[in-house]
UniProtKB/TrEMBL annotation, chain A:
It catalyses: DNA(n) + a 2'-deoxyribonucleoside 5'-triphosphate = DNA(n+1) + diphosphate. This is DNA-directed DNA polymerase. Gene3D superfamilies: DNA polymerase family B, C-terminal domain, Helix hairpin bin, Palm domain of DNA polymerase. InterPro entries: DNA-dir_DNA_pol_B, DNA-dir_DNA_pol_B_multi_dom, DNA/RNA_pol_sf, DNA_pol_B_thumb, DNA_pol_palm_dom_sf, DNA_pol_type-B, RNaseH-like_sf. The lineage of its organism: Bacteria, Pseudomonadati, Thermodesulfobacteriota, Desulfobaccia, Desulfobaccales. It comes from Desulfobacca acetoxidans.
UniProtKB/TrEMBL annotation, chain B:
Pfam families: DUF8156. Residues 1-84 form the DUF8156 domain. It comes from the Bacteria. InterPro entries: DUF8156. This is DUF8156 domain-containing protein.
Length: 783, 86
């Protein structure tokens, strides 16, 4: 039978892959396809043959045969043996055996996700249209109707059912918390007498609506695992899946880990089979880019959508690289650890830098242009062929040119001369870059970069309702590109080597400086620079001038530089601790089109209470209407009034507790807190109420009393109903900090209202002197 | 992606610590000037980063001198202006 279908879901079952398609009419179709998982082993020929014989006796394998595969490092074909597993369940056993290293073999392709491996092997991707041929539920053939990197994508009709909790998620389901479903725009709370009843209700909805997508809040962590357990205990069937075969579910609980200075908690995953379950709260990509974003990453990452939804950007880009490798018959190494080569101190000092970060002058500036390099690091990887296997490759060792500097800009007779930019030597580090092979990483990145540009262009031209879909997909791609760089540098990442990372940053610094030099040669003053963008200024500069400038820099560096916008005015703020000291990432300003850009302010912080955030944003919005510094000065009295208004509202009381909630991420378990910080006190309250919170999860609370018994200092979030008062003094201080941040940024020290200016002067006279500036404190107002 | 080499801004703090004894034995008013001198080195952090001098103090001193040079130029101009007016 022939049909057109959209690849919706796929998963391994036994020894074959189950695929679900949706027809253009919205019908779901289930097919199976045989897919043996293939592991490769290499090494000494006789040894390999001996070990394969031993393995065959174990009966894990259906078939073994000799073949060839490409080695990643050298790019050459080497002889290996292919081992086809009987069922997917045998993979862990084979891995354990290989892991013990008894055979002394090199193992490849051992730890790929089964469904993803199927997609890589077949060279197909989810969330796309196919011409299908099938017979009695078996897939016969499959041909894509559209390209993987197609600019425009279309979806079949999908039925969505929403599922959420009725109360704060910390309150357990069935013990104070209930469920609500959303369908066709209407929300309905489920009525049930007991747990079995609740399961029955959910089952009813699933059967009735037969959704393709269940979109939940806290489904992964709280709702589904509980419902599943209750369903088994009370023997009430719960048709989460369309899969008719029995599905084993195991909810192992989440884990906490530490990454980049932050404690992160990753919860359970509760995917469905034959249906999508996406938990908004557990999906980074859904939050960033909505459903279209998920479709985009599933397609490009060649991972089933539900996995893509729950994964981090790094896993996606790795999957793309794996797909590329499998398509090119490259053997994927297992448990790789490719450590750094030895370096001298001098070499280490030269390469171990990051991006260049300038310190801007403090104050308000008018008519400033911001120029940004587009996807600088991924672009550098793509155009200079930087990949773990291409940096200091063995194949080009004899072909190195001598002496030449990797290229620099020198003022010459006719303007700027690009002295011979040798494309295969890295600036400063002088690493060699392969000229014979295109690296795996650049090959993977190039189509993503191109597609992103296409989507951005499409978003600019399309009508608003369509533009947002292009924007969502473009945002998803941005995150994939951003993480690619991080993985490049990690020795344990599948495709990572620190020298590649060093090469990228070296080119990055060089290109930023090249941009700076070209701007300065054309008479611009460079106010600020940050890894891949510059802020410049010149009297009488026009947009046309700037566009021409961007063209020139793009041509010189090979990476596209674009005009982000011209600020009517921009304020660079100093350090919070020291008013005289500039910092790189605290500024705010308004573009010519009225759009505000804010970095490093209190309203951008995750822990700021909504009331304070809105106060600061209100000031910023009003400031944004001013066209120039004179305009700013003229609205100053109005701003002071707005500020006074916010202060007054706080003092009057009657603000809803939700508006004052502070959100903190727990960094350690309760026992490890030595000081009774507000966060620890809130956590203790939750503990006493029987609520468990793990490090990496969020705690939300309101400040209640400044002094007095510790139990009353804060009130944790789920118990805010009926909270009468709050700690006015603390919130006034927070508000003041937020207001002062904005006012002094724009008006300087004069931005402090007279009353506050007086208290600052008196503090300055009596406070400590020296490098440690006394932070300005507002006079306490009642409270 | 952690760095192996100490970031230059941390090196700045370490240098400042190294000079604490020197600072302590200075008169109060001189301490203020010294503090400003150290702060002025922060204005050109990116140059210190890029140069990656094995002795960070050299980059810091150069930055301090640079700021002095700028101040002197400015003062010379102002002086010439004022003298011209007389």
């Amino acid at each position: 039978m022939h049909i057109v279908g959209w690849l919706f879901d796929l998963y391994p079952l036994g020894d074959r892959i189950v695929l679900w398609f949706i027809t253009p009419e919205g019908e779901a179709l289930r097919l199976v396809d045989a897919f043996p998982y293939r592991v490769y082993v290499g090494g000494n020929r006789d040894r390999v043959r001996r070990e394969v014989k031993i393995l065959e006796d174990r009966r894990w394998l259906r078939r073994t045969y000799p073949t060839q595969g490409r080695d990643l490092g050298s790019g050459e074909e080497i002889p290996v043996w292919a081992l086809e597993l009987n069922t997917y369940a045998h993979l862990p056993q084979l891995r354990a055996w290989l892991g013990r290293g008894e055979g002394g073999l090199e193992a490849y392709n051992c730890d790929l996700d089964v469904a993803a491996y199927y997609l890589y092997q077949k060279k197909i991707w989810p969330c796309a249209w196919y011409d299908l041929e099938y017979q009695e539920g078996q897939m016969v053939s499959l041909a894509p109707r559209e390209g993987q990197f197609a600019r425009d994508v279309s979806l079949p009709p999908l039925v969505t059912l929403g599922l959420g909790l009725t109360q704060d998620p910390l309150i357990p389901l069935g013990a104070g918390n209930g469920l609500a479903v959303t369908w066709e725009g209407r929300s309905l709370e489920l009525e049930a007498g007991d747990r079995a009843g609740l399961v029955r209700e959910v089952a009813r909805w699933l059967s009735r609506v037969n959704p393709d997508l269940v979109l939940s809040d806290y489904g992964d962590e709280d709702i589904i695992p509980l419902l599943w357990r209750w369903s088994i205990a009370s023997r009430v069937p719960l048709p989460l899946d369309r899969e008719p075969g029995s599905v084993a579910r195991k909810f192992s609980g989440g884990r906490t880990y530490f990454s980049y200075g932050r404690v992160v908690y990753q919860g359970n995953a509760a995917p469905f089979y034959g249906r999508w379950h996406v938990d908004r709260r557990n999906s980074f990509f859904f939050r960033e880019a909505d459903l279209m974003g998920l479709v985009q990453i599933a397609r490009l990452g060649q991972i089933p959508l539900q996995q893509a939804a729950r994964t981090s950007p790094g896993t996606l880009i790795t999957s793309m690289q794996l797909a590329r490798a499998v398509a090119d018959n490259i053997l994927i190494p297992w448990r790789k650890a490719d450590p750094e080569r030895f370096k001298s101190t001098g070499e280490l000092l030269t390469v171990d830098k990051g991006g260049l970060t300038f310190m801007p002058p403090i104050g308000l500036f008018a008519n400033v242009a911001e120029l940004d390099f587009a996807s600088m690091y991924p672009s550098i990887m793509a155009i200079h062929n930087i990949s773990p296997e291409t940096v200091n490759c063995r194949c080009c060792a004899e072909v190195v040119g001598e002496g030449a500097e990797s290229g620099c800009w020198m003022p010459g007779a006719g303007g700027w001369d690009k002295r011979d930019l040798k494309p295969d030597l890295v600036p400063e580090a002088r690493y060699r870059l392969c000229r014979k092979r295109e690296g795996l990483v650049p090959r993977t990145l190039r189509p993503i970069l191109e597609l992103r540009e296409q989507l951005k262009a499409a978003a600019r031209e399309a009508a608003p309702e369509l533009a947002i879909l292009y924007q969502q997909r473009q945002t998803a791609l941005k995150w994939m590109l951003v993480t690619c760089f991080g993985y490049l540098g990690y020795k344990n990442a599948r495709f990572g080597r620190i020298e590649a990372h060093e090469a990228v940053t070296a080119f990055g610094r060089d290109k930023l400086l090249a941009a700076k030099e070209i701007c300065e040669a054309k008479g611009y003053r460079v106010l600020h620079g940050l890894t891949d963008c510059v802020w410049i200024q010149q009297a009488g500069m026009t947009e046309a001038d700037l566009q021409a400038l961007c063209q020139e820099v793009s041509a010189a560096t090979g990476v596209k530089l674009a005009l982000e916008g011209i600020y009517r005015w921009i304020a660079f703020l100093p350090s919070r601790q020291n008013r005289e000291r500039p910092v790189a990432t605290r500024y705010f300003g308004v573009f010519a089109d009225g759009k505000v850009k804010v970095r490093g302010l209190i309203c951008r912080r995750r822990d700021t209470p909504p009331f304070i955030r809105r106060a600061q944003e209100a000031l910023l919005a009003r400031l944004a209407t001013a066209a120039d510094p004179a305009g700013l000065e003229s609205i100053r009295p109005e701003l002071e009034e707005m500020a006074a208004g916010f202060r007054q509202r706080l003092q009057e009381g009657g603000i809803h507790p939700q508006e004052l909630v502070i959100t903190r991420v727990l960094s350690q378990p309760l026992e490890d807190y030595r000081v009774d910080t507000p966060t620890a006190l809130a956590m203790r309250q939750l503990h006493q109420a029987g609520v468990q919170i793990r490090p990496g999860e969020k705690v939300r609370y309101v400040h209640r009393e400044r002094r007095g018994p510790k139990e009353l200092r804060v009130q944790a979030a789920p118990f805010l109903d009926g909270l009468e008062g709050y700690d006015t003094t603390t919130y006034l201080e927070l508000l003041e900090r937020a207001l002062v941040e904005v006012m002094t940024g724009v008006f300087g020290e004069a931005g402090l209202s007279t009353e506050n200016a007086i208290s600052r002067l008196s503090a300055a006279k009596s406070g400590p002197v020296g490098g440690r500036n006394s932070p300005w404190r507002p006079r306490r107002k009642g409270g | 992606m952690g760095r192996t080499v100490l970031p230059y801004s941390h090196a700045w703090e370490e240098e400042r610590e190294r000079w604490q004894k020197f600072r302590r034995a200075l008169r109060r008013e001189d301490q203020l000037h010294l503090d400003r001198l150290f702060e002025s080195a922060r204005l050109h952090l990116q140059a210190g980063v890029y140069a990656a001098n094995p002795w960070p103090l050299e980059s810091m001193l150069m930055a301090m001198l640079l700021e002095h040079e700028k101040a002197l130029c400015l003062l010379k101009e102002r002086l010439a202006e004022l003298e011209g007016k007389q």
